[in-house]
Amino acid sequence: MMSYLVTIVIFVSIAGLVGLALNLQWGLAGLVNFGVSGFVALGAYMVALTAPHLGWLAATLTAALLCAAVSMALSLLTIRLEENYLAIVTIGFAEIVRILLLNESWLTGGALGIADIPRPFASLTPAGWGDGIILVFALVLVALVYGLMEGLVRSPFGRVLRAVRDDATVAAALGKPVLALRVRAFAVGGAVMGLAGALHAFFMTYIDPSQFTPIITAYAFMAVIAGGRGSNLGLLLGAGSIMLLLEATRFLKDLVPSIDGTQLSAMRLALIGIGIILLLILRPQGLVAEPRRTVRDVFPDATGES
Amino acid sequence: MAAQLLLNGLVTGLLLALPALALTLIFGILKFANFAVGSMLTLGAYAGYVGNVVLGWPLAAAAALAAATGALACLLSDALVFERLRERGSITLLVASMGVSLVIENICRFTFGNAALSFDIAPARPIRWQGIRINHEQIVTAAAVVVILILLHILLTASPLGRAMRAVADNPALAAVRGIERRTVARITWALTGAVLGGAGVLAGLDRAIDPLMGWNYQIPIFAAAILGGLGSPVGAVAGALMIGVAEEMSALILPTNYRQVVSFAVILVLLLFRTNGLFGAKAVRK
C-alpha cells in the first residue's frame, strides 16, 4: 500500500511538472501545445541515453536543454501564424518523435525501450527505503519548478506574456517584442516538459515508446483547465485531484466485474474528454482563478478604474 | 513500380480529400481547426462495420448508415459543445475539439475493443493492367470519392445553400444583414461534413483495418492536405489531398514505409517556412 501511495505521488509530480509547463505555454502565453507527450518522451529518452555516462545532474540538464532547443525551433516556425498552425505542428512533432523512437532501434531500443536507467543518489539509498529517495527528488523538483513559475508569473516577463496573450496587437504597439516573448515562453515550457520526462525515466528506470501516448497531453490540458489557466497553485490542485479521480476508477473494476481492462482505460480517457469539455463550458476560470492584479495593488491610493 | 505507387498515391489522395474538405469547410464557417475529424472517421468506419457485418447489409447501405451516424454525431457535438463555446475564440474551440475527439474515440474503443476489425466483403482478384495492380477497393474508393466531390462542388458553387455558406465564411455579419443566419448555415455545414466524414470512414476502413486509432493515424495527412490547400479553400483541400497522397506513397521509393507520416509533417513544415498561405491560400499570418 505504501509503495502504491508513493507511486501515485510521483505520478502526480510528473503530471504536475507537465501541467506547470503547459500552464506557462498555454495558460500564460496562449500558445497551444498538442505535442506535450513528444517533449516528455524526448526528455525521458535523453536522460536514459546520457545518464549512465554523464551522471544524473548533467543528464537532466541536457534533457531540459534539448527540449528547450526543440521547442524554440518549432515555435520559431509557427508562432507568427495563427494558433491553429502551432497546434497541428506540435501534434505532428509528437507523432514524429513516436515514429523515430519506434524505428531507430540502434539508438532507442525500438519497441523494447531502454532499461536500467540509473537513479539519482541510488548509492545513498539505505536498503528497504525503496522509492523514498526518488520521492524526495520528485517533490524537490516540483517545488523548484513551482517556485520558478511563480517567480515568472510575477515578474515583468509574466506580465508582458499575459498582455501578449490578451491582445498581441496592443502589446506590439507598446513596443513589446511579441515574437521573441512567445518563443521564450514556449522554450521554457519545453524545458520543464523535458524535466518531467527526466523524472519519469528516473522513476520507471525502464522506458519504451508506449509510455508516451497522447494521453499525457490530454491529461495536461485537463489539469490546466481544471486548475485555472494561468494559476500555478490551481494547476497543482487540479493535477492532484484528477489523478485521484482517475485512480479511483481502478476500483470500478471490483464493483462491475464485467468491464475488461480495455473498456476501463477507454472509460477513463472518455472521462478526461468529457471533463475537458464540461470544465470549458461550465467553469472556464477553473478551480483557482488567475490572480488579476489591478492598479490598486500597486498604488493603493489610486482612484481610477483599472 | 513508380507507376504503381503513383496510382496508389492518387487513390490515397482521393481518400484524404473528403476529410480534408470537411476540415476546411468547418474552418471556413466556424474559424477553428476541428481536431475531431480523425475520430469522426473512426466513428464512421465502426458505424459501417455495424451495418455491414453486424446487420449484414451491403456495403453501400452500410456507408449510408455511416454517413447518417457521422452527421448526427457532428450535429450533437455542435449542439452540446461547439455552439456553447462559439464566443470564446478559436483556441478554446480547438481544445474542446480535442476533448470531443477523446470522447468519440473511446466510445468506439469501449464498444468494440482494441482489436482490428474489417468489413465483410468478398475478396476479389485485383485487375492487372500494363503491369499495374488495381484492387477493387481502390476502384470503389476512387469512384465514390469522385462522385461525392462532384456533388459537393455543385452544391457549393451552384446552389443557394452553397452561396449562403460562402457568404457566412466570407463575412458573417454582412451575411446576417442579408438574412442569412449563421447558426442555421453552421448546422447544415456540420451535418454535411459529418456525412462526408462518416462515408470517408467506411472508405478508410476498406483501405486498412478498423481500430480505434485509425482516424488518429489519418489526422496529420488530413491537416497537411488542408493546410497545403490553404485552410478554408475547398478546391485547395482536394488538390492538397492528392498531392499529399502521392507524396506519401512515392516516398516509399526513398524512405522506409514506417516513415510515411514524416512526409506529411515535412510538407507542413516546409509550407509554413516558405508559403504560409498554402498553395491556394487564405490569409494566415496573425498580427
From TrEMBL, chain A:
Membrane-spanning intervals of the chain: 6-24, 31-48, 54-77, 84-102, 133-153, 185-203, 209-226, 233-252, 264-282
Domain of life: Bacteria
Localization (cell): Cell membrane
GO terms of molecular function: branched-chain amino acid transmembrane transporter activity
Keyword Nucleotide-binding: no
Keywords tagged on the record: Cell membrane, Membrane, Transmembrane, Transmembrane helix
Pfam families recorded: BPD_transp_2 (PF02653)
Membrane topology: Multi-pass membrane protein
Record-level GO cellular component terms: plasma membrane
InterPro entries (alphabetical): ABC_transp_permease (IPR001851), LivM-like (IPR043428)
Protein's name according to its UniProt entry: Amino acid/amide ABC transporter membrane protein 2 (HAAT family)
Automatic annotation (TrEMBL), chain B:
Predominant subcellular localization, coarse grouping: membrane
UniProt GO BP: amino acid transport
GO molecular function, one term: transmembrane transporter activity
Keyword Transmembrane helix applies: yes
Keywords assigned by UniProt, alphabetized: Amino-acid transport, Cell membrane, Membrane, Transmembrane, Transmembrane helix, Transport
Family the UniProt entry places it in: Belongs to the binding-protein-dependent transport system permease family. LivHM subfamily.
Protein name as catalogued: Branched-chain amino acid transport system permease protein
Organism in which the protein naturally occurs: Aquabacter spiritensis
